[in-house]
Input
Amino acid sequence: MGAILWALLIRKEIYMEITTVDRPTKIQRVFDYMRSGSTLTAGEARKRFRVSNMRATMHDLREAFDRFDMNYAITRETRNGRSYYRLVRNRSR
Output
């Protein structure tokens, strides 16, 4: 019984490595998309990246920028009742 449990733990560990290393996370995909200069709405993020909570994703991106001292900021523009998020490169910090 112990050997079976150990084998399952090893498989789970390998699976976790594969899913986090080989594939970019949702936040990485959103960042790559926005870095190209495109704006993103909550509906577009839901369709393209399966992001269910856009505000939380933008918050996580802002924290990552602060943590890694990256010169980016996220702005939110509202047009016709829709929020558009845009990635802006800061000149100095």
Q: What stands out?
A: Residues 1-20 have pLDDT under 50 and may be disordered.
